[in-house]
Amino acid sequence: MASGQATERALGRRTIPAGEARSIIIRQRYDAPVDEVWSACTDPNRINRWFIEPKGDLREGGNFALQGNASGDILRCEPPRRLTISWVYEGKPDSEVELRLSEEGDGTLLELEHATTSEQMLVEVGVGWEMALDFLGMFIRGDLPGGPVPEDAAEEFEPSPEMMRISQERGEAWAALVHSGS
């Protein structure tokens, strides 16, 4: 399951509608042009190949829902460089996710920032997004088999022992970073 991509982890702070927030920041480089990575992250017919297909009014000012996961509003959309969305999990504080893309050599640097007012959510969202970005990398490289991810995949998903080990290692890395106060 290893992505083959070097992942840079960082923490940040920013103000979101829910208040003062801390954020996890993940940076990964992909060997594809910015337009290709943007399309993989914003075209519902491509997103559903590596993540969960968004439903809703998918435009700036619109909204989205990911079955069995989160929903929110599309706050800002500046193709092919920036996408900002609210991120609402049932029963948890609202948060905000921003995707930023820039050219880096002959590839793309993707920076994902997930800001939340809940310190406890930082490790969880760090691990979750890092795993998702692995799947994005595999999709871009053409390493993902089959077609669209089934709508009920999140409910039926059984991680392999290797995925559990990677998730555990990433959880430890995020927890160390979050608790270091950086």
Automatic annotation (TrEMBL):
Family the UniProt entry places it in: Belongs to the AHA1 family.
Protein name per its UniProtKB record: CalU16
Transmembrane regions: none
Start and end residues of each Activator of Hsp90 ATPase homologue 1/2-like C-terminal domain: 31-136
InterPro entries xrefs: ASHA1/2-like_C (IPR013538), START-like_dom_sf (IPR023393)
Pfam families from the UniProt entry: AHSA1 (PF08327)
